[in-house]
Amino acid sequence: MTPRLTPDAQQAYKEVLETFPAILHPDKTARIDWLVGLQMAQKGVAEGDREMVITAARFISRPSSKARYDKMMGIGETRETVKTGYQTLEGYYRRPREVKRWPPVVAKTTKPASEMKILAFCASDRKEGNSDMLVSEAARGATDAGAALLDKIYLPDLNIKHCQNFYMQRDIVGVWEIDPDMAFNYCDYSCGFKGLKEKGTCTLDDDMPEVYEKIKAADAIIFGFPIINGWEGEVVTGFQERWQRYTGCVITDRAGEGRRAMVIGTWGTGDIQAYDNIVEVVINRLNTFKYNVVEAISACGFAGLLSGLDGDGKGIIKRYPEEMKKAYLAGRNLVTGEFGS
Ligand SMILES: Cc1cc2nc3c(=O)[nH]c(=O)nc-3n(C[C@H](O)[C@H](O)[C@H](O)COP(=O)(O)O)c2cc1C
Prior knowledge:
This protein is an alpha/beta fold. It is built from twelve helices and eight strands. The protein has two domains: 7-61, no CATH class; 96-163 and 204-336, 3-Layer(aba) Sandwich (Rossmann fold). The radius of gyration is 24 Å and the shape is globular.
């Protein structure tokens, strides 16, 4: 039911809806109406006000919309403060930089840290940038606890090709059962596929088979990436899609089962929640690979005049030891199962 709104609230509602594409309006309207109605019932009032509309809008929006709703409420960083970080070096160095360690999963490891091997991934194009430094710091936490670092893989350096197979294996097997002479192959790049128990090999000539051997050898992985245009970027999705399709296609014993993982997402805006939903996307993908993601880190503030670097061209986060320590402790927990503080 459409709630009754004050004129102010109606104006705010209009502004909120304008930020969404028209095709989404019916869905957004239904949710906002419901949430405003709940707030009215809770407060026992007959009309919804501006704040209720904005609260409802926050609830149904991506976390990166926070600045917009803060502005509507007249709170948060002013345009002026943000601008100085882009106009003067002094303002740039003063901009907030923050690392957030998500509440970790405290779960025992299956073996002692000294017997664990870790593999680190960095998806940023910038070596020694902020994602890279946080990944290294987490790896240092893990190796200080006794684990061995197998490798740090820079995803942009890999040759990862696009898998073009579009048959489901169980369908092909079904077809062969109906007609064994059916003359189409499972995939142009598949060699030796005979059925779900004998999957053969993938001959798409790229680095995935070699990387997968390392993934298999590692008890835990650290996966760091920067936010690009509001999402995790094609380097991450391209790699993870290939990983998923590769394992589904040729592997009978998948590597993720029982292994642990840590995800690190970094971005430019100074809002530490802004892209937690994207960090969640990456966590969920590793979860589908059967990893137990026990640690996650968000890190923000890597924008402005020097685009998140310092005067030496390195990730500015290295100047914030207290923030770096959070990645270190998370890396430790990855291989010890101890929360750390
Ligand atoms: C092409 C491009 C797009 C970006 N898009 C966003 C964005 O949508 N939101 C944001 O907060 N930061 C954005 N950033 C900033 C990066 O996420 C930020 O600088 C990140 O921490 C870089 O990581 P690195 O230091 O590991 O290279 C973008 C940076 C680049 C180069």
